[in-house]
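W.,

You were right to be curious about this one. When I first looked at the sequence I had no strong expectations either way, so I just let the prediction run and decided to look at it fresh. Below is the sequence, 159 residues in total, followed by the output.
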Amino acid sequence: MWKLTDLNREENGPESLFKKFEHYVLEKNLNFIVAREKCINQRPKDLEKDKTKAYLGEFADCDFSMIALFNDTPKSPFIAANMDIDKGLARVQYLIDFNQEATTGKASPFYSKVLGAFATHFFAVHPRIEQLWFPFTIENMVGSKMSVQSIDAGTAILR
Protein backbone atom coordinates (compact mmCIF):
# COMPACT_ATOMS: atom_id res chain seq x y z
CA MET A 1 0.00 0.00 0.00
CA TRP A 2 1.49 3.32 -1.07
CA LYS A 3 0.59 6.99 -1.16
CA LEU A 4 1.51 7.90 -4.72
CA THR A 5 1.36 11.69 -4.65
CA ASP A 6 5.10 11.97 -4.01
CA LEU A 7 5.94 9.21 -6.47
CA ASN A 8 4.15 10.69 -9.47
CA ARG A 9 7.07 12.83 -10.60
CA GLU A 10 9.41 12.81 -13.58
CA GLU A 11 12.53 12.37 -11.43
CA ASN A 12 11.31 8.97 -10.31
CA GLY A 13 12.20 7.62 -13.75
CA PRO A 14 10.88 4.59 -15.60
CA GLU A 15 11.24 2.26 -12.59
CA SER A 16 9.06 4.32 -10.22
CA LEU A 17 6.04 2.67 -8.66
CA PHE A 18 3.74 5.03 -10.56
CA LYS A 19 5.36 4.13 -13.90
CA LYS A 20 5.02 0.41 -13.12
CA PHE A 21 1.37 0.94 -12.20
CA GLU A 22 0.69 3.03 -15.32
CA HIS A 23 2.41 0.52 -17.61
CA TYR A 24 0.53 -2.41 -16.06
CA VAL A 25 -2.89 -0.74 -16.39
CA LEU A 26 -2.23 0.12 -20.04
CA GLU A 27 -0.55 -3.19 -20.98
CA LYS A 28 -3.35 -5.28 -19.45
CA ASN A 29 -6.06 -2.85 -20.63
CA LEU A 30 -7.56 -2.92 -17.13
CA ASN A 31 -11.09 -1.72 -16.56
CA PHE A 32 -11.80 1.58 -14.84
CA ILE A 33 -14.78 0.33 -12.84
CA VAL A 34 -14.92 3.69 -11.06
CA ALA A 35 -13.41 6.96 -12.25
CA ARG A 36 -14.01 10.37 -10.73
CA GLU A 37 -16.51 8.89 -8.25
CA LYS A 38 -18.68 7.45 -11.03
CA CYS A 39 -19.18 3.86 -12.13
CA ILE A 40 -18.00 3.93 -15.77
CA ASN A 41 -16.62 0.46 -16.69
CA GLN A 42 -14.32 1.63 -19.47
CA ARG A 43 -10.91 0.41 -20.54
CA PRO A 44 -7.94 2.50 -21.73
CA LYS A 45 -8.40 1.25 -25.31
CA ASP A 46 -11.94 2.67 -25.25
CA LEU A 47 -10.91 6.01 -23.75
CA GLU A 48 -8.97 8.86 -25.30
CA LYS A 49 -5.28 8.69 -24.44
CA ASP A 50 -5.40 12.06 -22.64
CA LYS A 51 -8.36 10.97 -20.53
CA THR A 52 -6.61 7.75 -19.50
CA LYS A 53 -3.48 9.71 -18.55
CA ALA A 54 -5.60 12.18 -16.56
CA TYR A 55 -7.37 9.34 -14.73
CA LEU A 56 -4.08 7.70 -13.78
CA GLY A 57 -2.66 11.00 -12.54
CA GLU A 58 -5.80 11.72 -10.51
CA PHE A 59 -5.58 8.22 -9.02
CA ALA A 60 -2.08 9.06 -7.78
CA ASP A 61 -3.21 12.40 -6.36
CA CYS A 62 -5.95 10.94 -4.12
CA ASP A 63 -5.58 11.08 -0.33
CA PHE A 64 -5.26 7.30 -0.22
CA SER A 65 -4.25 4.88 -2.94
CA MET A 66 -3.48 1.20 -2.85
CA ILE A 67 -1.18 -0.63 -5.20
CA ALA A 68 -0.13 -4.10 -4.14
CA LEU A 69 3.03 -5.60 -5.62
CA PHE A 70 3.78 -9.26 -6.21
CA ASN A 71 7.33 -10.02 -7.37
CA ASP A 72 7.73 -6.33 -8.20
CA THR A 73 4.65 -6.40 -10.45
CA PRO A 74 1.47 -4.47 -9.60
CA LYS A 75 -1.49 -6.65 -8.64
CA SER A 76 -5.07 -5.45 -9.02
CA PRO A 77 -7.53 -4.30 -7.84
CA PHE A 78 -6.24 -0.76 -7.48
CA ILE A 79 -8.26 1.60 -5.33
CA ALA A 80 -7.93 5.32 -4.61
CA ALA A 81 -10.10 7.42 -2.29
CA ASN A 82 -10.32 10.92 -0.91
CA MET A 83 -10.92 11.24 2.81
CA ASP A 84 -12.86 13.65 4.98
CA ILE A 85 -11.40 12.93 8.41
CA ASP A 86 -13.88 15.27 10.16
CA LYS A 87 -16.83 13.29 8.77
CA GLY A 88 -15.05 9.93 9.09
CA LEU A 89 -15.77 9.27 5.41
CA ALA A 90 -13.62 8.08 2.52
CA ARG A 91 -15.12 8.26 -0.98
CA VAL A 92 -13.70 5.94 -3.61
CA GLN A 93 -12.58 7.98 -6.61
CA TYR A 94 -11.01 5.14 -8.63
CA LEU A 95 -11.39 1.37 -8.75
CA ILE A 96 -9.39 -0.42 -11.45
CA ASP A 97 -9.45 -4.18 -12.07
CA PHE A 98 -9.51 -6.82 -14.81
CA ASN A 99 -13.25 -7.41 -14.80
CA GLN A 100 -16.29 -5.27 -15.39
CA GLU A 101 -18.28 -4.84 -12.22
CA ALA A 102 -21.47 -3.15 -11.08
CA THR A 103 -22.60 -2.63 -14.69
CA THR A 104 -26.20 -2.62 -13.44
CA GLY A 105 -25.33 -0.44 -10.47
CA LYS A 106 -24.84 -3.39 -8.13
CA ALA A 107 -21.65 -5.29 -7.31
CA SER A 108 -21.73 -9.07 -7.58
CA PRO A 109 -21.74 -11.06 -4.31
CA PHE A 110 -18.15 -12.18 -5.01
CA TYR A 111 -16.89 -8.65 -5.65
CA SER A 112 -18.77 -7.40 -2.60
CA LYS A 113 -16.63 -9.82 -0.56
CA VAL A 114 -13.48 -8.54 -2.29
CA LEU A 115 -14.44 -4.97 -1.35
CA GLY A 116 -15.21 -6.09 2.20
CA ALA A 117 -11.71 -7.57 2.52
CA PHE A 118 -10.24 -4.34 1.19
CA ALA A 119 -12.35 -2.32 3.65
CA THR A 120 -11.01 -4.38 6.56
CA HIS A 121 -7.46 -3.45 5.54
CA PHE A 122 -8.40 0.17 4.86
CA PHE A 123 -10.04 0.64 8.28
CA ALA A 124 -6.99 -0.88 10.00
CA VAL A 125 -4.76 1.71 8.32
CA HIS A 126 -7.18 4.62 8.86
CA PRO A 127 -8.73 4.31 12.34
CA ARG A 128 -10.49 7.70 12.11
CA ILE A 129 -12.47 6.70 9.02
CA GLU A 130 -15.80 5.01 9.79
CA GLN A 131 -17.30 4.77 6.28
CA LEU A 132 -15.85 3.73 2.92
CA TRP A 133 -18.17 4.83 0.10
CA PHE A 134 -18.54 3.30 -3.37
CA PRO A 135 -20.74 4.70 -6.19
CA PHE A 136 -22.76 1.49 -6.55
CA THR A 137 -24.70 -0.98 -4.42
CA ILE A 138 -22.73 -3.53 -2.43
CA GLU A 139 -24.25 -6.78 -1.22
CA ASN A 140 -24.32 -7.45 2.49
CA MET A 141 -21.00 -9.12 3.29
CA VAL A 142 -21.85 -12.46 4.88
CA GLY A 143 -19.57 -13.35 7.78
CA SER A 144 -18.20 -9.84 8.11
CA LYS A 145 -18.54 -7.72 11.24
CA MET A 146 -18.97 -4.71 8.97
CA SER A 147 -22.28 -3.56 7.57
CA VAL A 148 -23.34 -1.57 4.54
CA GLN A 149 -25.58 1.47 4.22
CA SER A 150 -27.01 3.29 1.20
CA ILE A 151 -25.58 6.80 0.97
CA ASP A 152 -25.52 9.34 -1.89
CA ALA A 153 -26.62 6.98 -4.69
CA GLY A 154 -24.05 4.44 -3.57
CA THR A 155 -23.10 2.29 -0.62
CA ALA A 156 -20.84 2.87 2.35
CA ILE A 157 -19.14 -0.01 4.10
CA LEU A 158 -19.31 0.83 7.79
CA ARG A 159 -16.60 -0.06 10.28
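Here's what jumped out at me. Confidence is low (pLDDT under 50) at residues 1-12. And, maybe more interesting for your project: The first strand starts at residue 31 and ends at 35.

Coffee later to discuss?

I.
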